[in-house]
Amino acid sequence: MAELAVKPAENPVEKEIILSVNNIEVVYDEVILVLRGISLDVPRGELVTLLGPNGAGKSTTLKAISGLLKTEDGEVTRGSITFNGESIANSAPDEIVRKGIFQVMEGRRIIEDMTVIENLRLGAFTRKDKFIKDDIDKVFHYFPRLKERRTQWARTLSGGEQQMVAIGRALMSKPRLLLLDEPSMGLSPVMVQEIAGIIVEIAERGVPVVLVEQNAELALRLAKFAYVLETGNVALEGPARELHESDHVRRAYLGG
User: Fold this and answer.
1) Which of 174, 192, 219 is the last residue of a domain?
2) 86-116 pLDDT, tens per residue?
3) Cα distances (Å, whole numbers) of residue 69 to 53, 77, 256
4) Cα–Cα distance between 179 and 174 in angstroms, integer?
5) Burial, 133: exposed, middle or buried (Cβ in 10 Å; 0-12, 13-18, 19+)?
6) pLDDT for position 36
């Protein structure tokens, strides 16, 4: 696959904002302060990335948005999270999925004892419309390999194919916002490029994406805007192209 070109970055402040996280603090077990005032905006139809070292709060930020903190005794104790102008902080995960936010978690978390097609249908569990089959065909357009393996047990797939199932399952929910946590982890370079191309296409087709990715070079190449988290705070933010040239980012995350 040819290397993806970096497009000129644009400031999300000038765009229609679909998600706004404003100065949130997150506490686990009523004691442990993990996020210390995180703020970020996600424009409609764009790809935003969160960078930072392990423990910086990237995955916790995604869980705060998707409601998954509640499954881990975590809570947003200050600040606000609004999606399409509606407050969603500390809402239940199923409520947030119904509002159009779906998170693909680190490690994929597909159901290994179900087939590919069963996993995809599971992604549509909140839907009652008649277009589920049409949307399965759209997933197969993104991932032709899954069509070939539609009746195969998920546990028998390669890591890259399982990641395709995880993203495809998310798309079956008809998301209005997609959260991706470490989608390239454990994949071959060829598969990373294939998944990256699909992520960009998803955003370009109108579904905004928040990407958490340890591969900072890849993330900054894909994203329009980037936030660098350190110890639960936003240390840097700006157009991804500019952060790619930042001395601090190059030293800390790009190997020079």
Assistant:
1) 174
2) 999 999 999 999 999 999 988 778 999 999 9
3) 20, 12, 35
4) 13
5) exposed
6) 93
**Alpha-carbon gap, residue 64 to 68, rounded angstroms:** 6
Cβ-in-10-Å burial (0-12, 13-18, 19+) of 212 comes to: buried
Average pLDDT, the chain: 90
- The Cα–Cα gap between 182 and 50 comes to 10
Q: What gap in Å lies between CA 198 and CA 237, rounded to an integer?
A: 25
How many C-alpha atoms does 108 have within 13 Å on its Cβ side? 21
Other beta carbons within 10 Å of 99 = 17
The SS3 of residue 241 is helix
Residues in the chain: 256
- The pair of structure tokens assigned to 43 is 């424009």
Please check whether residue 158 is in contact with residue 110, taking contact to mean a CB–CB distance below 8 angstroms.
no
**Strand bridging mode 177-181 / 209-212:** parallel
Is there a domain that residue 249 lies in?
yes
pLDDT (average), residues 45-59:
94
pLDDT in tens, 202-254: 999 999 999 999 899 999 999 999 999 999 999 999 999 999 998 888 888 87
* 245 lies in the same domain as 146: no
Q: List residues bridging with 26 in a β-sheet.
A: 35, 76
Structure tokens at 222: 């894909």
CATH of the domain at 240: 3.40.50.300
- Tell me the residue range of the domain where 76 lies: 12-100+177-253
- pLDDT above 80 for 4: no
Residue 3, in any domain of the structure: no
Phi, psi of 248 (to 5 degrees): -65, -45
CA 226, CA 244: separation in Å to the nearest integer?
A: 9
